[in-house]
Every structure is written in C-alpha cells, then in structure tokens.
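USER:
Make up one protein:

ASSISTANT:
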Amino acid sequence: MRAVSPGALRLLVLLGVFALTVLFFALVIENYLNARLFNRISTSVAIVAIIGVGQAFVVLTRNIDLSVGSVVGCTAYFVGGLVAAYPGIPAPLVPLIALLIGAVFGAVNGFFVARFNLPSIIVTLGTLAIIRSILVESSSGASITTASLPEWLPAFAQANAFEVGGLQVRWAVLLALFVVLVAHVFLTRFRAGRRFYAVGSNPDAAGFAGIDLKRTVFQAFLISGALAGLAGFLFLSRFGNITVVAGLGLELKSVGAVVVGGVNIFGGSGSVIGVLIGAALIDLIDTSLVRWEVVSEFWREAVLGFLILLAVALDATLSRRLSRRRQRRAPEAAPPAPLTPAPEAPQPARAP
C-alpha cells in the first residue's frame, strides 16, 4: 500500500475540518443545512477563490501580494464606469478588459519586486494605498450604481448554469472552478508551472538549473493582478453598487484561503485545490458566524486571523517533522573504501 503524500494528506485533513465545521454549525444553528446556504455563499467563494489562486502563485515564490483588495475595487469601479458610459460593449469583452486592468497593476508590483529585489510585503503595502487613492481621486466620491449598468451585468452573478435538488450552480461558480482547474493543471503538469515551486523551494538551486528567477516572480505578480481583475468583474456583477471602499478586506481573505488551504507561506509547496477548499471554509465560517448569535460580529475578523495563525503554525510543524523523517530515512553515507597499497613494480633482473 502506497503512503499518502503530504499534499494529499493536507487536502484530506482540510476536507475533514470543513465537514466538522458544517456539523458544528448544524448543531448550534436552527435550520442550518438547506439549499440556501450553498446558494448564498457560492458566489462569494467564487470571488475569493479566484483571488486566492492568483495569491497562491505569488506565495509559491516566497512573496505576498497585499494589493489584491485594492485591485479588485479599482477594477470593479473602472469597468463599471466604462460599461455605464459605453453600454454597447460586447459582453465577452468586459471580463477581458477587467483581466487587462488587473494585469497592469500586477505588472507594476512584479516590476518593483523582481527588478529591484524589494520585499514584496513593502511594495504591495505601498501599492495597496496608491491604488486605493487612485480610486478615490478618480471617482470624486461618486459611486457606480446598478441602475447605470446594462441589465446583463448584474444578472450574470445570479444566473444559474443548472440546478440540482435546489442547489443553484451559477455561471460565476463554474468560472471560478475553471480558473482553479486550469491553474492546477498548469502548476502540476507543465514545466513552466513547476518553475514557481522551484523558485520558492530553493531559489539558488533554481537559478543554477537555468530558471530565470526575476522573470518567474514577475509572472507570479502578473497572474495575481490579472485574476484579481477578473474577480473585480465578478464583484461588480454581484454587488452592482460600487463605492471607493469596494474590495476592502479581500487581501486578508485571499491570504487566509491560501494559508488555510495548505500553501506553504514560505513558498515551494501547496495546491490550488486546497486554496478552493480554504476559500470555501473561510466563507462558510464567516457566513455562519453572522447567523450564530452567540458570537459578536466584531469577532468575525478575529476568527479569520486565528485560522491564519493556526494554519501557519501547523504547516511549520508539519514541515519540520517531514524534514526530520526524511533525514532519518536517508541512507547513511557508505564508508570510503580502504586504500590498498599499489603493487610494487617488478625489479629488472640483474645481469650475472
């Protein structure tokens, strides 16, 4: 029987935690398990999961992107204003525009981190404030309203692809699942995807192997920005009314989904499938705490922070134990072969 890999074990544990969480809230909240629970959180999970996938690319390379919330809000506002001014824009072109806007912001982050080797937490903390300031100044305090948008845009987030037993599977959810699937296949089946793991696992070894470290880090931030832009499109479709605080707090949720989902905060390991489960777990807890009167609403962010701390601590402990186990199982170095004296050269025969 083959041993379960650490990555698969993490996913199984995460699924177990998710099931226990559902069971706990079902016991303390009346009429908890119903189709409305799935329908209510599915679109929210789709938004966080898409941002989390982009964040995972960055974290795999030993970096972090704190600007994703501002990118989501800014993209949602700019796309909303563009569509309101030009309602004749073809619908398939709108998410592509959102992707492009987000990619521009991501490229700025990637340029400063990769080109100048600056700490990503400092760079993205700065761009978080700069992008939010751009949104405030360009909007002049005005909001995008649902009434100013074409009818198809607010309807997209609520449009059902199909329905099974009262569970409404929406197109936004399928879009998020498609993003997760493409990212998973790319990271696990393609050499270009494995480079992100290599850079985060051992940058020096990756450099010696011929991997362009700066280019890989730049690509990670570019992907993160682009997916945050796509999430901005879904955010606009879901809420319709966009203010200057749109997307605020999503950076924390994205980091939470990545870390709780099993991506090593120190880079080099993790799965976007876990990110999807982590996003679902975080949104499930967030939504359930609203309905559970015992816990104050002010503690919701604290619970998320506790989950992040717990996940990081468990991941670090698991990594250390796995490292020690590998060292114990590694075969001992064979002792060097004893040196044998070289045979003496035959002496030439003396003449009589």
Q: What stands out?
A: Residues 7-320 form a domain with the ABC transporter involved in vitamin B12 uptake, BtuC fold (CATH 1.10.3470). DSSP finds 13 helices and two strands in the chain.
